[in-house]
Amino acid sequence: MATPPLMPKATAVWLVDNTSLSFDQIADFCNLHPLEVKAIADGEAAQGIKGLDPVMTGQLSREEIDKAQANTGYRLKLQEAKTRVPETKRKGPRYTPVSRRQDRPNAILWLVRNHPELKDAQIMRLVGTTKPTIQAIRERTHWNSAQLTPMDPVTLGLSSQIELDMEVEKASKHLPPKPEGEVETTLLPVDETTSEDAMAAAFARPAPSQPKEEEIDADAVFAKLNSLKDSSAAPAEEAEEAEDDVPSDPFAGSSDEAKAGETADGDDESAGKS
């Protein structure tokens, strides 16, 4: 889609009133629908809009308009601006969409853990947060610190990888130099790991020996199972013998004694009455 001119509807109003261009030509130049241009010509749309002359604003030339009026199939081309105005950088924290603001603490935690050399001002530029929030996350005093999980701000869409790399590079310049004897634990370059000598050494390296599996003796396994069965069967037999020794009705004797006592009491009472 072509770049639309400044104030497309006002430009379309002027072209409708001052040229004999077709609706399709005006619609293509102003990025409008042909029916919308027709409504402007009929007075049904853009009634309160004043026409803007694209020739005066330097967006079209008179020769371009004459060429398009002579050929209905010709499409107008927007003139390039003779002067380019640099974009003004907005000062202050970066704007973060509402849907992603809840992810900012996670991004700050990731930056604090993985790039401790970054200053608060750099984190503020990357994520668009405030200094008290960064300080609270660093000191683990944030109200939601227990639920925070470090997440890459590039993955979350809060900043670009180029911006993050630039800030890390700036911060690394201010780091103190490392001792001479200290060796950085980094990955080897691809040229070294994929060279012919490295590949030959990797294939020539013997494979790690695997421990041999012990041979299983079936007779020993079944003998052990039989011994386990015998040991478990012995307590069961002892329990059965103990159950046989217990009388079937343990309360039978006590009930007979109780009945005999009741009859004796009854005889004594009858003798006393007589």
Give a structural overview.
The protein is mainly α and 274 residues long. Among the domains are: 63 residues, no CATH class; 76 residues, no CATH class. It contains 13 helices and no strands. Helix 1 runs antiparallel to helix 2 and helix 5 packs across helix 7. The longest helix has 28 residues. It is elongated and about 120 Å long. The termini are far apart.
Topology:
Blueprint: H1 8-18, H2 23-30, H3 34-42, H4 62-70, H5 104-114, H6 120-127, H7 131-138, H8 153-156, H9 161-173, H10 190-193, H11 196-204, H12 218-245, H13 252-273
Helix pairs in contact: 1-2, 2-3, 5-7
Name a few traits of the molecule:
274 residues, mainly alpha, 53% helix
Number of strands: 0
Mean pLDDT score: 78
Write down the Rg.
47 Å
Count of helical segments? 13
Order of helices and strands: HHHHHHHHHHHHH
Helix content class: 40-55%
Low-confidence stretches: none
| Coarse structural class | mainly alpha
Largest sheet features: none
